[in-house]
Write a structure and sequence with these properties.
Layout lengths: L17 E3 H8 L3 H9 L6 E3 L2 E5 H7 L9
Antiparallel strand pairs: 1-3, 2-3
Helix pairs in contact: 1-2
């Protein structure tokens, strides 16, 4: 049985529903302060859960301009 693979140009965003901003910074290579400013100015919508800031996966895909059919 073969395992389906992603096209080489597909973004490698984890399949989990939420990432914290440390993970987002690591995934994107952006500085933490920049990720923080994207959240603060509303470019990326985040959810506060207690003292944690979580970014939904669909927000990462949207902000990376990944077409909806590639958001598996």
């Amino acid at each position: 049985m073969s395992v389906p693979t992603q096209p080489s140009d597909a973004p490698l965003i984890p399949a989990k529903l939420f990432s914290n901003y440390f993970e987002v910074a690591s995934l994107t290579g952006l500085p933490l302060r920049f990720v923080d400013s994207l959240i603060a100015n509303g470019t990326i919508h985040a959810k506060r859960v207690g003292d944690r800031v979580l970014i939904p996966r669909h927000e990462l895909l949207r902000s990376a301009n990944v077409p909806e059919e590639d958001q598996r």
